[in-house]
Amino acid sequence: MNPKELVALHAYDLVKNEFHKDFILGIGTGSTANCFIEILCKQKPEIKAFVSSSESSSNLLKAAGYEISELNDVGGPDLYVDGADEVNGKFELIKGGGGAHTREKIVAAASRKFICIVDDSKIVKKLGNFPLAIEVIPMARSYVARQIVSMGGKPTYRIGFKTDNGNHIIDVLNLDLDVPYETEKRLNRIPGVVDNGIFAFRKADIVISADSKAARSLEQSF
């Protein structure tokens, strides 16, 4: 197994005994989350409802015969499982490489527990080497980019990409992420920003990481 498959299997083994007929499971987006979806499709656990953070994940689950519920209809998931682009020792995250971070943050915030599954390359001492995705309303893209420059950031428009919400993405390097939740809050106060890919207010509860040999659950401040 590769590391992504290992962390997905470890996560499933960790939570499989919690599944029951009234269980609501939130599913994230990306290649690691897809590995978890593959295990679900094979094991077919008894689950009341799935809430997905993207159309791509929803399509995978639908192809396996599952129905996808709207978050508005089922309330908060018991568990949310998703990957990340970076994870620090406080379990704060950078997400958004796939452009689904706004919906991912909503589902994570609504969930009772958030398990983040990553390979070891995503573990960092400080967030910020991976470009920070910021979802913006199209008419505000240039304005938001100027505000980011004033903060010291280097924004790049993700050309040809549109989110599931119909918005644009600006990828940003060089922001001050010494205190991630302060930057998360500051960015979201810019008019036209829908949300950014810093997960500090709603960080992961559990992080599972793997190398090429084994997966393990991490302790905070690893």
In short:
This protein is an alpha/beta fold. It has 7 helices and 13 strands. The chain has a 6-stranded mixed beta sheet, with helices on both faces.
Plain-language structure description:
This protein is α/β, with parallel strands linked by helices and 222 residues long. It folds into 2 domains: 140 residues, Rossmann fold (3-Layer(aba) Sandwich), CATH 3.40.50.1360; 66 residues, Alpha-Beta Plaits. A 6-stranded mixed beta sheet has the order 2-1-3-6-12-13, sandwiched between helices. Strands 8-9-7-10 form a 4-stranded antiparallel beta sheet, covered by helices on one side. α1 crosses α2. The longest helix is centred in the N-terminal third of the chain and has 13 residues. It is globular. 48% of the residues are buried.
